[in-house]
Design goal:
The chain has 77 residues and is mainly beta. 0% of the residues lie in helices and 47% in strands. The protein has no helices and four strands. The model has no long low-confidence stretch (mean pLDDT 92).
């Protein structure tokens, strides 16, 4: 959060070797997706999509991934 002179942390989000974050909005809701790459030597790991609640990002979907490196938001029609 911008405090007037610098950004201040408002929340810590756990990751496992995260390679990418992707912000997107859909139907006036705000989301943040994290691409988790590995947990130690295991690259079969869950990546998570979070939704903004108005005060914090809360996990809304866990997606099994294998060494995830990137997220891209897209829409059809």
């Amino acid at each position: 959060q911008w405090n007037g002179t610098a950004f201040a942390a408002i929340q810590a989000i756990p990751t496992h070797g995260a390679f990418d974050w992707e912000y997107f909005s859909l139907n006036n809701n705000h989301y943040l997706a994290v691409a988790n790459f590995n947990s130690g030597s295991n690259s079969d790991i869950v990546s998570v999509i979070y939704q903004w609640t108005g005060t914090a990002f809360a996990p809304v979907q866990a997606i099994p991934t294998h060494g995830a490196c990137d997220w891209e938001f897209f829409s059809i029609n």
